[in-house]
Amino acid sequence: MKIIVANWKMNGGVDLADEFIEEINTITSPNTIVVCPPAVLISRFGNFSHRVGAQNCFCEENGAFTGENSPKLLKEAGCKYVILGHSERRSIFCEDDELIFKKWKAAVAQDLIPIVCIGEKIEDRDNWKETISRQLDFFLDDCPLGDTIFAYEPVWSIGTGLIPTEEKIETIFAFIKELLGDEAPLLYGGSVTSENAQRILACQNVDGFLVGGASLKIDEFKKIVAFGAVFNH
Hints:
Blueprint: E1 3-7, H1 14-24, E2 32-36, E3 51-54, H2 71-76, E4 81-84, H3 87-92, H4 97-109, E5 113-118, H5 128-136, E6 149-152, H6 166-180, E7 186-189, H7 197-201, E8 208-211, H8 218-230
Parallel strand pairs: 1-2, 1-8, 2-3, 3-4, 4-5, 5-6, 6-7, 7-8
């Protein structure tokens, strides 16, 4: 089974949400399809026939944290998944590995399935092992991962149209598997399109995608989902 996750980031709107629901609801797939819209649109997906996730959550269940989203409330709003540690959260909002791990614990406590993002910046491209090892360090200390999903997103690839070679992807994913074991699903993210989806999915250990910009184009996203069905096994 493949996992195809749409991350809309701070994009979309009511019209796109309604059209997306109508179109994607027609898809019958052996794979897991998840859409993560902006938080204010989550309630719009009440009749979505697939899964809904959030793009972030805070590390506390409630309290005086103006503007943050409680994992408990996200669960009540219908979310099954939550993206944590996206590179934009790390760079723009200065989230560090410890905070991301705390968010992970809070999400798991509410039975949300975390999608934890990892990946190196362009300046760390030659030292990707060190970067990934550091980002995963909190998860390697006798920590039961449960249903946690990890998404490898090389920061230099996001929005640039550049992607690692298939050989590089397989090398990196094999390294991550060595650290995490075989149970945790691994997604690839970073400039995923219908033009490269098929060959990336053919790479060993790639269990699906975290799709950014292409998920806002419904026909494009449907093509990516269709490729996922081809590689279902």
